[in-house]
Design goal:
With about 260 residues, this protein is of the alpha/beta class. It has 7 helices and 14 strands. The strands form 2 sheets. A 7-stranded mixed β-sheet has the order 6-5-4-3-2-1-14. A 7-stranded mixed β-sheet has the order 7-8-9-10-11-12-13.
Length: about 260
């Protein structure tokens, strides 16, 4: 499995992008930053978008990707997958013909640019050559993480979350779990705000990792607020866990 980091930060500054990962060139995991980085050919190659939740930094570039795909006349619809609540939020607040055109009926309902596919938490589905299982996590709006299985091994993407339970329990049952991508948004000094807004700090991340009995699983950190990046990294270093890696935009991770 090839994981290309398009954006991995919890805020945006020049040269630093919000969340989006490209899996095997075909499947987007969140879509905060897409069209400013990928060529038109790479955009056309995308068939599926998995959305963890409806916050703008995770969905923004679906709008521009849909617009590009429309005029490039992609042969098959771009399929957006998530829970009913999350898809309803996108259709109500983004693709509503007010903020942005409703590309689920453009150019016509029989041949749309976008197609929405509902996922049920806990139920496994096949997406391209991957098996996907969404699991609810703890954030301020309905949010899911994804267990993603391939022949090379399994990975977990935990969307924005505070302390959570079910996904860590499921992680302990996966024998070939190669990597977990998990957020760490704020420094320890802001733990009260992190708890209020459904995010992790280094100290709460350390507590979460104790729920995982898998010393061979790599832990990739993302969604750091750039204003506090150095403080977060300094506090992560104090954990002294060799499994932990911080990732950067443009990085390619082979699973």
């Amino acid at each position: 499995m090839n994981v290309r980091v398009l954006g991995c930060y919890g805020s945006q500054l020049p040269g630093r992008n919000v969340t989006a990962f490209l899996l095997n060139g075909k499947v987007l995991l969140d879509a905060g930053t897409v069209t400013s980085l990928l060529t038109l050919e790479e955009q056309l190659n995308i068939d599926y978008i998995l959305i963890t939740h409806s916050h703008l930094d995770h969905v923004r570039d679906i709008a521009f990707l849909a617009d590009n795909v429309c005029y490039l006349k992609k042969d098959n619809p771009l399929v957006i997958l998530s829970t009913q609540y999350i898809l309803d939020a996108l259709q109500t607040h983004l693709f509503n013909d007010i903020i942005w055109p409703d590309f689920s009926v453009i150019p016509n309902p029989a041949n749309p640019v976008l197609k929405f596919k509902i996922l049920k938490p806990g139920e496994r589905v096949q997406v391209a050559d991957l098996n996907i299982t969404p699991i609810r996590v703890s954030h301020t709006v309905e949010t899911v993480g994804y267990i993603i299985e391939s022949g090379e091994g399994s990975i977990i993407f935990i969307g924005d979350t505070g302390p959570t339970e079910e996904l860590w329990e499921r992680a302990k049952t996966i024998t070939n779990l190669k990597a977990i991508f998990v957020e760490t948004s704020l420094p320890n000094s802001m733990r009260d705000i992190a708890d209020m807004t459904g995010h992790l700090t280094p100290i709460s991340l350390e507590h979460e990792l104790k729920k995982l009995d898998s010393p061979q699983t790599d832990i990739y950190l993302y969604h750091m607020k750039l204003q506090y990046q150095q403080a977060i990294q300094d506090e992560i270093a104090l954990i002294k866990d060799k499994r932990i890696h911080t990732i950067e935009d443009g990085q390619i991770i082979q699973i």
